[in-house]
Amino acid sequence: PLPVVAVVGRPNVGKSTLVNRILGRRAAVVEDVPGVTRDRVAYETAWAGRAFTLLDTGGWNPDAQGMAARITEQAEMAVATADVVIFVVDSVVGATDADESVVRVLRRSGKPVVLAANKVDGPSGEADAAALWNLGLGEPHAVSALHGRGSGDLLDAVLDAL
Ligand code: GDP
Ligand code: MG
């Protein structure tokens, strides 16, 4: 079986957009309304000649009660099957309580985590990305899933962690 790379994070941070960027096609469902991705969706893909399964996650209604619990549950399921986790944070918004609860799940799992500081659409966003060092997960990899900025370096880091 191929190694599994799971993309986790709270709703609307750009997980599905990043998955599409990595796949190089529109396969994952991206919506301005958060919560569209159904549960977990797996795609087979490759980078630098190495094949892996990419797992997109999501699917809860962020307005529902108990969102933090649902995010934690989703992250736990994804992390359990993952060899490496891409943890996506919206660097414009910064780290929220929901992000912090995902961090706790990731720490407990002991799995390698690559931190994606998403929505860094231009050089002015680099400072926002650097602020995410505070999460204690190592280097925040500044990316713009929307425009492709930094996605190659992110994938190199993912393969290094595999
Ligand atoms: P998900 O819920 O984490 O899967 O997030 P989506 O991929 O559905 O994206 C949520 C919203 O964020 C959409 O409106 C995306 O277009 C937007 N988005 C995603 N990545 C970026 C990015 O790098 N820059 C900007 N400006 N917007 C982004
Ligand atoms: Mg999604």
TrEMBL record:
GTP 1 binds at residues 9-16, 56-60, 118-121. Residues 3-162 form the EngA-type G domain. Belongs to the TRAFAC class TrmE-Era-EngA-EngB-Septin-like GTPase superfamily. EngA (Der) GTPase family. Associates with the 50S ribosomal subunit. GTPase that plays an essential role in the late steps of ribosome biogenesis. This is GTPase Der. It comes from Phytoactinopolyspora halophila. The lineage of its organism: Bacteria, Bacillati, Actinomycetota, Actinomycetes, Jiangellales. The chain holds residues 36 to 197 of 472 of the full protein.
